[in-house]
Write a structure and sequence with these properties.
The structure is a single chain. It is globular, with a radius of gyration of 21 Å. The longest helix has 19 residues, at 390-408. The protein is α/β, with parallel strands linked by helices. The chain starts with a helix and ends with a helix. Helix content is 27%, strand content 21%. Helix 8 runs parallel beside helix 12 (390-408), helix 9 runs parallel beside helix 10 (272-287) and helix 12 (390-408) packs across helix 13. Strand 2 and strand 3 (72-77) form a beta hairpin. The chain has 14 helices and 18 strands.
C-alpha cells in the first residue's frame, strides 16, 4: 500500500496527517508568486550572524520571526527563486519550505457520558484507569520517595506540555497547574479548546476523581495549537526553547507529522531545513537539562526505515520529530500488547507505555467487538473522556521521567541519565531484550524509583 493510501484510508481518523505531509504545496492553477513560508538555518547553531536580515531581504524574503538561540529564522517570500537565491550565501546551512505539525490525533476516542460519569464511583481512578494502575503498580509507586512527583527538598518538578493547551480550571488539574503560555498567533490564552492537551496533562498530573502517574507533579501549558489545525515548525521550536529557558524538567510532545523526502510536491532539499530546526531545538532543550519525550505516531507502520514508511511511494519518509536523544514511546494495551494503531521500529522506539486500544475482541477491519473501557480515561475540558493513541502513552513516560527527577532532586540528573533509568527499569515484553515494538520494555514507576 502506498503512503498516500495509508493516510487517506483512515487508519487513524481524518486527514490531519495528510495535511502535515502536504502542507505548503502549491495547488494546480495557483500563481507561482504565492507567498510561502520558509525556514532558513545558518551554520552557527548558537546565534544569528551579522547582516542576516539583509541577506534574507536581498533574496526576496521578509523575516517574520527569529530563533536566535538555534541560529534560524522564519521567512515569508513571494519570490519563486527565494531558496535558490538565499542558498548562495556561505553562511547558510539549510533553507526550505516550512512544514506543519499537528496534535497526534487519537487513534480512537469516546465520550464518558454524563450518565456514566454520574453512575460511576466518584473515584474514577479506582474503577476505570487501568493504565495509571499499570504504570504505578496499583499506586504502589506513590508510597515511595518522590513517587508522587514531589521532590524531597520541596521544589516543583514541572512537565511542560507542548500541545493544544490545558483546561486549567479542571478540578483534577487546577491544583497542579503551574502556568501557561500561548505560541498560537492571535491567541494569548493557554486554555485548551480542543481536549487533546488536557487529556495529556491529566495522564501526567491529575489529582481528583482521576489520577496521573505523578499526582504531585506540576504541568505547564505551552500552547502551540488552536482549536483546530496545525502549527508551523518554528512556533513549536519556539515553545520548546521557551520551556527550556523556563527551567522545566520534562517536556512532552504528543504531536507529530512526517517529512516525506522526494515527495513529488516538494524537492528533497526543501524538507531538510524543517528537520534540522527540530533537531536543533531538541538539542537546545536537552543541553539545558530538559528530558524530552515524544509519541511514536498512530499509523501502525514500521518507522525504522524511511523507505518502509513510504510504502510503494517513491522517496523516503521520516517521522518528525524523532531525535535519538528524546524518549520515543510506542503504545500498549491493557493486556500489555502493542496497540493495533501504534507505530513501531527498531532504533525508533525507546519504551512502550499504556496508550489504550479497544480490547481483545476488536476487529480493526470491521469495527466489531469494540470495548471502550480498554481506552485511556483522563481529563478533558469540562469533564472526562476516553482516548487511545501514542499521544496517551507518551505523557505517562514524561510523568515517569518527572517522578525519577523528584526522587533524585531537581537538576541533579542529566536527560541522558533520566532516559537510562526509564529504559533500564522497564519490564521486558515480546522478544527477549530490545525490540522495535516495545523498545526496552513497558515503563514501570516502582522499578524506576525503588
Amino acid at each position: 500500500m502506498t503512503w498516500k493510501k495509508v493516510i487517506f484510508a483512515g487508519i487513524l481518523t481524518i486527514s490531519l496527517c495528510g495535511s502535515a505531509v502536504f502542507a505548503g504545496a502549491v495547488q494546480t492553477g495557483q500563481a507561482q508568486t504565492l507567498e510561502k513560508k520558509y525556514i532558513v538555518i545558518f551554520k552557527n547553531e548558537a546565534n544569528l550572524p551579522s547582516g542576516y536580515k539583509k541577506l534574507v531581504e536581498d533574496a526576496g524574503g521578509k523575516i517574520s520571526s527569529t530563533l536566535e538561540p538555534v541560529g534560524a529564522v522564519e521567512v515569508t517570500s513571494a519570490n519563486p527563486e527565494f531558496l535558490t537565491e538565499v542558498k548562495k550565501s556561505s553562511q547558510i546551512a539549510e533553507a526550505g519550505i516550512q512544514n506543519k505539525l499537528y496534535p497526534e490525533t487519537p487513534a480512537v476516542e469516546a465520550e464518558l457520558t454524563l450518565q456514566e460519569a454520574e453512575t460511576a464511583q466518584a473515584d474514577l481512578y479506582e474503577t476505570l484507569q487501568w493504565d495509571i494502575k499499570q504504570v504505578t503498580d496499583n499506586g504502589a509507586s506513590w508510597k515511595l520517595p518522590g513517587g508522587t512527583g514531589k521532590a524531597a527538598a520541596g521544589e516543583d518538578i514541572v512537565v511542560g506540555v507542548i500541545d493544544t493547551g490545558i483546561d486549567y480550571t479542571h478540578p483534577d488539574l487546577k491544583e497542579n497547574y503551574a502556568y501557561g503560555k500561548s505560541f498560537v498567533p492571535g491567541l494569548t490564552d493557554p486554555k485548551d479548546e480542543n481536549g487533546h492537551g488536557t487529556h495529556v496533562a491529566g495522564s501526567i498530573a491529575a489529582k481528583g476523581r482521576t489520577m496521573g502517574v505523578g499526582p504531585d507533579l506540576k504541568v505547564a501549558a505551552y500552547r502551540v495549537f488552536g482549536p483546530t489545525g496545525g502549527a508551523e515548525t518554528a512556533h513549536i521550536a519556539e515553545a520548546l526553547m521557551a520551556a527550556a529557558d523556563d527551567n522545566v524538567d520534562v517536556v512532552n510532545m504528543s504531536l507529530g507529522g512526517y517529512d516525506w523526502y522526494q515527495n513529488p510536491e516538494f524537492a528533497t532539499k526543501d524538507i531538510v531545513a524543517d528537520v534540522q530546526l527540530f533537531n536543533r531545538a531538541i538539542k537546545y532543550a536537552i543541553q539545558k537539562g530538559v528530558t524530552v519525550v515524544g509519541s511514536a505516531g498512530n499509523n501502525a507502520v514500521d518507522i525504522s526505515s524511511p523507505g518502509k514508511l513510504s510504502g510503494d511511494d517513491n522517496g523516503s519518509t521520516h517521522r518528525s520529530p524523532s531525535s535519538q536523544s528524546m524518549i520515543r514511546v510506542s503504545a500498549g494495551g491493557k493486556l500489555k500488547n502493542l496497540a493495533f494503531y501504534s507505530n513501531y521500529g527498531v532504533g525508533k522506539i525507546d519504551v512502550i507505555a499504556p496508550g489504550g486500544d479497544l480490547g481483545p475482541n476488536y476487529n480493526p477491519s470491521t469495527g466489531a467487538g469494540r470495548d471502550n473501557t480498554y481506552l485511556c480515561l483522563a481529563t478533558v475540558p469540562g469533564g472526562y473522556g476516553y482516548k487511545g493513541g501514542t499521544s496517551m502513552a507518551a505523557p505517562k513516560a514524561a510523568a515517569l521521567a518527572g517522578v525519577i527527577i523528584a526522587k533524585h532532586g531537581k537538576d541533579q540528573l542529566s536527560p541522558a541519565q533520566v532516559k537510562h533509568i526509564v529504559q533500564s527499569s522497564s519490564i521486558d515484553l515480546f522478544k527477549n531484550g530490545y525490540d522495535g515494538e516495545a523498545g526496552h520494555g513497558l515503563i514501570n514507576a516502582v522499578n524506576a524509583i525503588k
